[in-house]
Design goal:
With 215 residues, the protein is α+β, with helices and mostly antiparallel strands. It has four helices and 14 strands. Helix content is 23%, strand content 46%. Strands 1, 3, 4, 5, 6, 7, 8, 9, 10, 12, 13 and 14 form a twelve-stranded mixed sheet that branches.
């Protein structure tokens, strides 16, 4: 009897290990317009800027289609017909999956990304495997995708970096469990199928970093 009970417990454990579970981890985004600023910046940038963004996920735990996604890093470059802060604007994207991850994990991770963030990504023009470096702590975040994309960001300090009448212009592009305003120090995107080259050196509060959880 004791052996039967033990066998039942072990089988249940194996079954649970194969079931899907919420995918959680770290998130980073940078946009080509300020997300915190003055009314004048809002009125000028909303019409002409904010059409590009870099987003990235560093998955720490979770399973999809019975495959563990822990350790997988994903990134995307977005380009919209109008500002991406308008959820209804048409947008295109190029996706990247970490080339250091197993092929099956990359494939399933990209399927998870499309299923959970399809509205954010819009029309996916291409998918590439490339080495992805992702670092995030309480005060800074950075991203590097091969020689195609680099991003450095630190925690924003609106009281010192903006005027007293500045305010929050835009929330993150996707729902997060925690979010920190980021001041981007450098961002550069080149060589993607979007046909754009995006370089920004000016320090500005143009993004967020934090944590996500998706079923």
């Amino acid at each position: 009897m004791r052996c039967r009970i033990l066998l039942t417990i072990l089988c249940a454990g194996v079954a649970c290990a194969g079931q899907d579970s919420p995918v959680t981890g770290q998130y980073l985004e940078d946009r080509s317009s300020r997300v915190y600023g003055c009314p004048c910046e809002f009125s000028s940038e909303y019409a002409s800027l904010g059409r590009e963004a870099v987003v990235a996920w560093n998955i720490e735990s979770g399973q999809y289609q019975k495959v563990s996604l822990a350790g997988l890093r994903l990134a995307a470059v977005l380009a919209g017909k109008f500002t991406l802060s308008d959820a209804a604007t048409l947008r295109r994207s190029v996706l990247f999956a970490d080339s250091g991850a197993p092929a099956l994990q990359r494939e399933v991770g990209l399927a998870w990304l499309r299923s959970r963030y399809g509205d954010l990504l819009g029309q996916v023009l291409s998918v590439r495997a490339a080495p992805i470096e992702f670092a995030l702590d309480a005060d800074s975040a950075s991203l590097r995708v091969g020689d195609l994309l680099t991003l450095r960001m630190r925690r924003a300090n609106p009281a010192e970096e903006t005027e007293s009448w500045a305010f929050l212009l835009f929330d993150p592009l996707t729902k997060l469990t925690s979010a920190t305003l980021g001041t981007t120090l450098h961002t550069e995107s080149a060589g993607t199928d979007l046909g754009i080259r995006w370089i920004r050196e000016e320090a500005a509060i143009t993004g967020y970093y934090g944590r996500f959880s998706q079923p």
